[in-house]
Specification:
The complex is a heterodimer of chains A (289) and B (356).
Chain A lengths: L1 H9 L3 H33 L3 H6 L12 H8 L3 H32 L5 H12 L7 H11 L5 H5 L6 H13 L3 H8 L4 H12 L1 H16 L3 H6 L8 H9 L9 H21 L1 H6 L1 H4 L3
Chain B lengths: L1 H9 L5 H31 L20 H7 L4 H35 L7 H13 L2 H11 L5 H8 L14 H5 L7 H4 L2 E2 L2 E2 H4 L5 H28 L3 H8 L4 H12 L1 H15 L4 H7 L10 H11 L3 H44 L1
Antiparallel strand pairs in B: 1-2
Helix pairs in contact in B: 2-17, 3-4, 3-17, 4-11, 4-14, 5-11, 6-11, 6-15, 12-13, 14-17, 16-17
Classes of the chains: A mainly alpha (289), B mainly alpha (356).
């Protein structure tokens, strides 16, 4: 990258370059406006009264500021319950995926056992199954197992993610095994080597798994549609989707809907900004595909 | 790889066998129980007359052969027509989303990759942010932006355009562009999957077009990162050589940069194509298939057939047809990625030749 920068500066046609730069920035800025503007409108509208939201949908500054939408969501709706359910499921799924994916990834990368190839083949095959074709199948099995409409039914099927195992396996294969050999000579058991020697070294890959799991389960909708029906188990995605189709409200009530959508975006947005460097650098690992 | 060889030479450590199985057991159990068993059960349901009562494995459920598959692909009934409409809708969706998202994400990557760019972190963040938000939240936002007096129509009115009633407009955009004429008899008279050829050619509805724009908006950031990674892997030498030879920026892009991006380009194209056939959340949240069934996708149709109409056999059959479509694209992608290693070797050889 730096070499290109140096070369550019050496170029004699400075004026032509300046015009090009101006055009480049103009294009980039207008594109960025298109990408950012919807979210600004969203936040602005959530602070407008209903009538103003309908009458003036573009303005980024409410003429009348009101917290009515947030007040209604937080004190007179099931929204806090939805949020709690999403949080419970997301934390459980993320912890589970990190643990099970690294455990299996380590075994597949480092432990020699019969049937290893078969297990790996199963995981690769399963990765190709798209989740939308599993809607009916998952419901059938949850029903058969008697965990339909329960936290178990919401969490267990999401607890393992084949892609995560794949990523962890790749990571463990990339680190030298001299360290664990030493620990083994010192007499540590397999789990102990994994837990206190190998896992602490796997931090970058674990962060990737945390990001993917958190984002994936927080934003998950279709699984919760087929796994639950009672209002007490509604998650944010399912609840806000029901708000969108107007099941709770009369009229359009855009401020309430947009406020709900804004709040549900905050946790993933925080995650994104905290791990921004990580996401942008290991783009291949962080892409959900 | 060398590590494996090494260890094979030493022989397996004691205790590796039980530990290996123990470590992978949770993954095997969960994937088996919630992926493999469900698929097999649904396969059985797609060949049965199960109506949703009790267990499909109970003795009362009958085997009906390919009846459910026949109902959605022939016979002229409502099931066939619904399936035809869903395939029509999704085919147009894929046809427009894939080129638009690929072109846009490549463009964004090229712009952001400029070495002298200030604020490049900001631009990358701005373009990628829509990709991390949930499809539900984005759909809610889109319903507002594209409402009758919404932001999009207000901006359009500034330039004198009277925007459509986006999410309530079932007319296909090709038909609209032609001025909604009566179709010629040879197109309206015959049909495929219960949908007349004239309707196949109608284009996506205006409502679906809004969803197409949403897909482009939410996926371009992800694919931009893929292109950026590829761009940073290709060295500046070839571009430099082209510059020396007096090639214009345009020529250098088409003749030098783009051929080197071929593997990334194929990855983005096939990932996009696979993703396009999995549209569900947006339909469930936003349109429930309306207006006039023009936003029904096969994924949503299978859900609706099973959970709303209790036609479980047909619903399962639809998801297996969809599964087949996606598997074909996935296999195509695997094949292309194998191609990619080969082409990388070729590129390296070319690059070496160029340097020498």
């Amino acid at each position: 990258m730096t070499t290109t920068a140096v070369r550019r500066r050496q170029k004699p046609a400075v004026r032509k370059g300046a015009v090009g730069q101006a055009v480049l920035y103009a294009v980039l800025v207008s594109l960025a406006v298109v990408y950012v503007f919807p979210f600004l409108v969203q936040v602005a509208t959530s602070f407008k009264p209903d009538a103003e939201a309908a009458a003036n949908a573009v303005s980024l500054w409410p003429q009348t500021w009101t917290f009515a939408a947030y007040d209604r969501l937080l004190t007179r709706s099931d929204f806090p319950l939805w949020f709690a359910n999403s949080a419970i499921v997301t934390v459980a799924v993320t912890v589970g995926r990190v643990f099970f994916a690294s455990l299996a990834g380590y075994a597949l990368a480092r432990l020699k056992f019969r049937g290893r190839g078969l297990v790996f083949a199963l995981i690769v095959a399963v990765m190709a199954v798209p989740s939308v074709v599993l809607l009916i199948p998952k419901f059938l099995v949850l029903n058969q197992l008697g965990i339909y409409d329960s936290y178990a039914g919401m969490i267990l099927p999401l607890l393992v993610d084949a892609a995560g195992v794949f990523i962890m396996k790749g990571f463990f294969e990339s680190i030298p095994d001299s360290v664990e050999e030493q620990a083994r000579i010192d007499g540590a058991g397999t789990f102990r080597v994994f837990w206190s020697v190998v896992l602490p070294m796997a931090r970058p890959a674990l962060v990737t798994i945390v990001i993917l799991s958190f984002q994936g389960s927080w934003n998950e909708l279709s699984h919760f549609i087929v796994a639950t029906q009672s209002p007490e188990l509604t998650t944010l995605t399912k609840g806000v989707a029901s708000l969108a189709s107007g099941q709770l409200s009369q009229g359009t009530q855009y401020p309430v809907k947009l406020a709900a959508a804004a709040i549900m975006t905050i946790p993933v947005a925080v995650l994104f900004f905290v791990f921004q460097k990580h996401i942008m650098n290991t783009s291949e690992g962080a892409v959900k595909g | 790889m060398s590590l494996t060889v090494n260890r094979a030479g030493l022989g397996a450590r004691r205790g590796d066998g039980p530990a290996g199985w123990l470590f992978t057991l949770p993954v095997i159990v969960v994937l088996g129980l919630f992926m493999l068993v469900p698929v097999l059960m649904a396969l059985w349901v797609s060949f049965s007359d199960w109506t949703g009562r009790g267990s499909p494995l109970a003795p009362g459920t009958g085997f009906v052969g390919f009846e459910n598959y026949a109902a959605i692909t022939s016979g002229g009934g409502l099931a066939e027509r619904n399936f035809g409409i869903a395939m029509r809708n999704n085919a147009w969706y894929a046809l427009l989303v894939v080129p638009l998202q690929t072109g846009l994400s490549l463009g964004l990557a090229l712009l952001v990759n400029r070495a002298v760019l200030r604020g490049r972190g900001f631009f990358r963040t701005a373009f990628y942010f829509p990709s991390v938000t949930s499809s539900v939240a984005i759909t809610v936002l889109w319903l507002f932006l594209f409402s009758t007096s919404g932001a999009v129509n207000q901006v359009l009115s500034w330039i004198g355009v009277n925007g459509p009633n986006w999410f309530n407009e079932p007319a296909g955009i090709v038909h609209v562009a032609l001025g909604n004429p009566e179709g010629p008899a040879f197109l309206t008279g015959s049909d495929f999957l219960g949908v007349s050829w004239w309707d196949w050619l109608s284009g996506p509805s205006v409502a679906m077009s809004a969803l197409i724009l949403m897909a482009v908006f939410t996926t371009s950031g992800t694919f931009m990162l893929l292109f950026l990674a590829a761009l940073q892997n290709i060295g500046p030498e070839l571009d430099e050589a082209g510059r020396m030879d007096g090639a214009s920026a345009w020529q250098r892009f088409w003749r030098i940069t783009l051929p080197q991006l071929r593997p990334a380009l194929f990855t983005v194209l096939t990932l996009g194509l696979i993703g396009c056939w999995q549209v569900f959340d947006q339909i469930y949240t936003g349109t429930q298939g309306g207006p006039g069934k023009t936003t029904v996708t096969p994924a949503y149709l299978s859900y609706e057939a099973a959970f709303t109409d209790q036609a479980w056999g047909q619903g399962a059959a639809i998801s297996f047809v969809l599964f087949a479509v996606i598997v074909v694209f996935t296999l195509f992608q695997r094949w292309v990625l194998r191609e990619r290693d080969a082409s990388k070797r070729v590129e390296k050889r070319i690059a070496k030749g160029a340097k020498a």
